[in-house]
Every structure is written in C-alpha cells, then in structure tokens.
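> @MW can you paste both from yesterday?
MW: sure, first one:
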Amino acid sequence: MPHRFIFSLRFSSKVFMKLGLLSLTLVLFMTFFRMNLYFLSVFHATPDVDVTEVFHSFLAGVRFDLLILGFVMIPVSLILLLQAFTERWPSWMFVIYRGYFMLVWFLICVLTFIDFFHFVRTGMRMRFTDYMMWTPDAWMDSLHGLQRNQIWIFSVITILLFNLGYMLIKGLRFGEWKDEFSPNTGSRLEMGLRIVIPLMLVALAARGTVTAHHLAWEHSDVSGNKAVNEMALNAVWCFDK
C-alpha cells in the first residue's frame, strides 16, 4: 500500500498521546500523594508558613514529578519512532508498554509509601544513604512514633492511588495501525512535526525547565521552612541523591 510510512507515523503519534496522557494522570496522582503528605504532616508542623509558599511548593513538586515521568517516557518515545519507521506494530509490544508503566507506577508508590514515614519523623525526604540503612524491622520500629490515623490514612490513599493507576494502565487500548489509513497522504511538514514534537516534549519534561540548567535541588527552595521545601521533591528523585 502506498504511503504506508505516514500512516505508521500517525499511529505512533496516537500511541504517544495515550501514553503521554497516562503519564500526566500519574503526575496528578503524585500530586495527591503530596497533598496527603501536606495535610497529614507538613500542615501541622508549619502553622506560620505563608500559603503562597505552600502553593509554590506544590508547583515545584509538579515539575519534579514531570521530570520523573519525562525520563520514563524517553525509551518509550524512541521505540515508538523506531516502530513508526519500520512499520512494525506487533500486539506484544503493547503488552510490554503496559507492563513497563505498571512496574514504574508500582515502584513510585512503594518509594513514596516508605518515604512518607521517614518524612513525618524527620521533615526530610529519604536520600540514598537512608535507603541503604533501611530495613523492614527498622521501618516497623519507626511506626511506633506516628499517630495511628496518619498510618491508616496514607496507607489507604496509597492502595487507592496504586489501584487507580493500575486500572488506567490495564485499560489502555491502542487499536490497529491500519486504522490510520486515509486519503490524506500527509506532507513533509506533518512528518517532521510528528517526529520532532514528541521528542521535544519528552526532553522538556525530563529537564524540568526551559532554562540552560536542568531542574535541581535549588528549584525546590521556595520557602524559609525546610519541610515545605522538602515537600516539593519526590521520593523517586531523591532516591539517588
């Protein structure tokens, strides 16, 4: 069939958009995690902090969350372009995409859950050295210093958000690439945009900023209160710090 490439490229854009929207939804869920962290811990520990500083912390937090999902999307976007150029769309690849995002979301939820209890006790996110010293027994001991309602609420929220993410990922349907066949054969401009725009969006998300320097710890410095600044970070970003 003539002009197969443009149809394959259009399908890659369709798959990218679905996975991109999924990523944005997971960022929203990560914001819900941060909201629970705020109301269960930071709110009570920072009664004198200006509300605008808290708002800026949440905005910075979205940038850090987008950075994580940006890195997650890097291999996906490259493989999608490879599939578009080779015009190969086997059904098992969609199983791999769903499995990849399920694993990513599971790890995000686990790290966020473990990090919560450390944050409540110390007012700081866990760093790599903290994870190296972490053991299930030490974690159980740390629970004794927390209020029971903090433990139950965050545990229920974690299970709920994990299941919501799991159902969204499991329910992803991509269709068939031949469904994109149409009389419109496309132009070079369309081809270029479908190749460049996804790469630019992923690169921007992974950098977390449009400035010369990528997103770093100083971008979380939005308040004179350390706990508010730490809240802007996330457990995954802090894992290797």
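MW: second:
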Amino acid sequence: MDLNFGINTTFKTEAVSPILVSSGTVIAIVVTADLEDGFYKFNNAEDGLKFVKTNNLQLGTLRTTLKGIFLQAVNCPVVAYVVRLKSDIEENTLNVSLGIEKLTQAYNVLELNPDLIIASGYSGDVGIGAKIDAIATKLGAIGIVCDFGNTEAQSSSFLQNFGSRNLLITNGISIINNEEISNDVMMAGLIAYWDNGGDNGFDGYGWSKSHSNRVVKGIEKSCRKDGTFVEFVDSGDCEARRLRQKGMNHILRDEGWRSYGFETTSIEPLWQPLDRVRTFLKLARTLKKSLKYIRDRDLDELIWAKKSIEEFFRELKGNNVVIGFEAFFDTQKNTKATVLAGKFYLKLKVQDSSAVRELNIEIVLVDEYGESQIAILNS
C-alpha cells in the first residue's frame, strides 16, 4: 500500500445546503417578423421594443407581443424564437409550429428555461395549441393558448380539444390604441408581473398564487374577436362562469378590466387550479436543480439532502406557500435491492395553500332582535 507521507487534510460538509427558488418568470414567445429564423434574447419587453424600433420591424407578431407584455409593467426575461414572416398563412402556421419545438433548446442556447410559452395570433389553431401543450409539458412550463371563438358554443368546442394541467386557455383580444393584441399575451404579462410580487412589491413567492381577479393594465377593452363581449354576471349564471368551469379564463370588465379564472383543462379536479400546478412545477424544478450536487456522491449525502429539503419547506410554510409537509425515505420502495443498486426514494407529502374560489354568505331574516327596538321606542 502506498503511503501519503506528510499531513493531509480533507474537507467535508455536514450542514444543510440552501435551496433557492429562481426569481423572475421567463416568457418564451414564438413570433413572426422580417428577421432570420432563430433565438433572440431580451432582458425585458422594453428592451425588445427598442430592438423592434431600431430594425423597423412593423410586420408580424413580434412587436405586438412585446407591446402587450410591456404594458403589464413587468421586468422579466423574454426568450423569442422568431420565424421569418411569409405571405402564405399556412406556411407561417407550419413554421410557428416548428418554432415551438425549438424552445426545448432555449437553455442550451440562452441558458434560460421558459416558464410561460405563447405563440400570439396562432394558438387559436388547435394544432398549435396542442404543440404548445406538448412542449410546455416537456419543459415543466405553462403554455397559454388563446381561442378566437365568437360564441359560447364555439369556445366550448375549442376546449374539448384539450385536457391538460400545463395549459391556461383564454379567449379573445384586448384593444390598445386601436390595435388588437390577443389575450394570451396580456395574460402572460399579467402572470409574470404578479409572480414578481405585483403591486405589493417583490416577495419571491408570487408563482404560488392565483392570478385571477387581477387588474390588466393598459387596455381600452377586452372582447371576442368580432367585438362582442363575453356575458359576465358577478355571482350569477353566465357565459364566463360556465366557460370557466370548463377551463377557459377571460379578461372581463369588473371594476376595471380584470382577469377572471386561473384554471386548467385537466380532468382531475385537484389539478384544475393553475396556482397549484405552478407551485408543484416550481418546486420540482427547484429541487432538481438544487440537489443535483448529490448525484453520484456518497450515501451520507442523502441525510443532508433530506435536511436541506426540510429547511426549505419550513421556509415555504412560513411564507404560506404550503400549510404542511413531511419528508421521509419510503420503506416500501427502498429495498435491499434498490440500496445495492444505488437507487433511493424520498417521499415528500405536501399540502399547498389554496386560493379562495368560492365564498357563500347566507343572509337570514330573523325577528329575534325586535324586542330591543321596542325597548328603544319605549325609553
């Protein structure tokens, strides 16, 4: 045996490693413009609009998409995959579909993982919507699709094509300075703004909240493509409520123009609240990234990984992201064979903090306080 002569030192960690949630929501857009096909990275929508102005890019969907995001006052990275605008609509649709697939390379090219995916003006095509769903699911992101149906029946028919927990489906357009911008853009900007804390200032946990009932900035009106309005009666049966129950979300006039709905089209009721889906997606992505260091390390690293996870979830509990959790190595799945193979199962039982979606107030007429009134009259 060889001897390592002298005094030798080694370093070992016996402390929890911080698990940090990445701040900022990355919006990925697939758009058309008079540019070469490829990726473009903007620090924010304002940066992108300066690029548009410098290059005089008036045609296509790049400018209007960036404009809609900018109006929500959000400062977040924008990943754009641009396809060159053609005169043929079908060719543009095909190229946008291929561009959506390119988003799987966004991290390799730009070192950014998309959180929200939109293809403004094109996602009303069922094939494009399905492609957004597939890529969003693959990337652990949320796709936003915009239907352009002009009746409740048409929108219901559109919804029947989807049953995904990775999609938010909205409808119609917003009018801004007499210009139409599809509502998938407005919803993407709105979500990113409130992910960063919105009007309340940055809190780091906006991604765990419902962004229904938020004011949408900068618009003159929101309507269907033909200019008609979705029927909305607060606390009453109406088109907006019926479509929301099927998974469609709108921007409606309700003391200002507000988002209405934050639901998916999943057939599983527990995964219909989009805030829950986004919370678990964010947690999964964060844990995978933060615990990557233990891959192919010694067995005792698992002890510290578990402690790090517990500390992380205590912080989440303190910030009302979750209301309870438990972390343990599953004795049913961890067997002698799996341990020998270096394969381990750590189970996390988590309950998220739910948003208030329904409050029922019962107003009861009674006569039991009449005696006090009579006493006042007789005093």
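> thanks! The chain has twelve helices and 13 strands.
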